[in-house]
Design goal:
This is Glycosyltransferase family 2 protein. Keywords: Membrane, Transferase, Transmembrane, Transmembrane helix. Pfam families: Glycos_transf_2, GT2_TM_C. By secondary structure, this protein is α/β, with parallel strands linked by helices. The chain has two domains: 216 residues, Spore Coat Polysaccharide Biosynthesis Protein SpsA, Chain A; 150 residues, no CATH class. It is 59% helix and 8% strand. The protein is built from 15 helices and nine strands. It has a four-stranded mixed β-sheet. The protein has a three-stranded parallel β-sheet with strand order 1-2-3. α10 packs antiparallel against α11 and α13 runs antiparallel to α14. The longest helix has 31 residues. The model has no long low-confidence stretch (mean pLDDT 87).
Length: 414
């Protein structure tokens, strides 16, 4: 249980959890991850039978990961120390864990939310929207991404390398567990009004944004690729229609000014798609995200040489268009041109030239990202240590032999 000034409720929570374990014959402990309480919460928790560990780094996520590391059990059930969750009804979580689940999430919307337990903003907007975004961005079926009551295998969660220190820790656990292919399940749970007289630590808009930001940053597909691809398609279709002449829709007339805008849309969309590719390759190489087989196949197919060729062809097309525009200018005796027609040649040519350099730079950058660093495995380390030890023995034997040869053969020596 993460704890920061929960003197009013922490003792009740600890006693409920201990009673539940005793009732069902569970060999366990209650760990209070104290984040710097100044109201005596620590001693109250100890008196109730808990083990208190001090977590210096501030934040909900920091307190939880510190408590998880300090826990001694095979399974861990985490929950807030504000008496809003029912610690006497933990067996559904335990049963799922014993059945092989890696992470068991509580679902407050299925189990029941008591009147006044959750603000309307969170109940009808914040939690449903963020949970929907989580299910949309990631292959997850979890209906309540932010339930604070959840159980998991300690070793499975520690292997995820959770890093966020704030409230977004709740999303990070679900997202990384899903991406790593862990067995994630859900059980109904209840939520009651907390027993505190002070306001909660949660800040609706700040923490909601932190959750949304995390979901976006861990999904390059929705952050970069899908918006970029949509902009490229719209920009290309609109540009193709405007290159041949003005387009009129009802009373609206679209001409070269719109063509400049659609060309910019193509360039921006292309950049976004490239950023999605960069992010996927980098995140997979560094272990932040699991490797995407489709991206890996694309990178294997689109080698540096092919990228340079495609970029070169785009550059030739752009230069050819610019040369054609110079001939068009010559035909008009290098005088004033009608921009309504000259820009129809210059804008697509400049766009192709810009995209050619983007393609070349992208091919070079992806090749740099793909340079694999040598990582020593435990076997490599052991083999290296064995070789060093053998070399040390050989050196010692050589030194002893050299010393023996230099020592005079005397009766005393015999």
């Amino acid at each position: 249980m993460p704890c920061l000034n929960e003197a009013e409720t922490v003792e009740t929570c600890v006693r409920k959890a201990i009673a539940c374990m005793k009732e069902h014959g569970i060999d366990g402990e209650v760990v209070i991850a104290d984040n710097g309480s100044t109201d005596g919460s620590q001693q109250l928790a100890r008196d109730a039978g808990a083990r208190v560990v001090h977590i210096e780094a501030k934040g909900y996520g920091n307190a939880l990961i510190g408590g998880i590391r300090a826990a001694r059990g095979r399974y861990v059930i985490m929950g807030d120390a504000d008496d809003s969750y029912d610690f006497t009804a933990l067996m559904p979580f335990v049963e799922q864990l014993r059945d092989g689940a890696d992470l068991v999430m509580g679902n407050r919307f299925k189990g029941g939310i008591a009147p006044g337990a959750m603000p309307p903003l969170h109940r009808y907007l914040g939690n449903p929207v963020l949970s929907f975004v989580g299910r949309l961005f990631f292959p997850s079926k979890i209906g309540d991404f932010h339930c604070g009551l959840r159980g998991f295998r300690r070793d499975s969660i520690l292997k995820l390398g959770l890093q966020t220190g704030g409230m977004e820790f709740a999303s990070e656990m679900v997202v990384k567990a899903t991406l790593q292919g862990l067995d994630v399940r859900e059980v109904p749970t209840t939520l009651s009004p907390d027993g505190r007289s002070r306001p909660p630590h949660l800040r609706s808009w700040r923490d909601g944004w932190r959750h949304l930001r995390f979901l976006l940053l861990y999904s390059p597909r929705w952050l970069f690729f899908i918006p970029g691809l949509a902009m490229m398609i719209v920009g290309l279709l609109a540009s193709a229609a405007l290159v041949t002449g003005p387009v009129t829709i009802g009373a609206l007339a679209f001409d070269v000014d719109t063509l400049v805008g659609t060309a910019a849309l193509v360039v921006i969309g292309f950049q976004a798609v490239l950023f999605a590719l960069f992010t996927k390759v980098y995140a997979a190489e560094e272990g932040f995200l699991p490797e995407d087989k489709r991206v890996r196949r694309l990178v294997d197919i689109m080698t540096l040489e092919k990228g340079l060729i495609i970029g070169g062809l785009l550059a030739l097309a752009g230069l050819a268009g610019l040369v054609a525009s110079l001939f068009h200018w010559q035909v008009n005796n290098f005088g004033e041109l009608n921009p309504r027609w000259s820009l129809r040649l210059v804008v697509p040519s400049a766009t192709a030239l810009i995209m050619s350099f983007q393609t070349i730079f992208a091919a070079l950058f992806i090749s740099i990202l793909g340079i694999r660093r040598t990582r020593e495995t435990p076997t490599d380390v052991a083999a290296s240590a064995a070789e060093e030890a053998a070399e040390a023995v050989r050196r010692d034997e050589a030194e002893e032999k050299k010393t023996a040869q230099a020592t005079p053969d005397t009766p005393a020596a015999r």
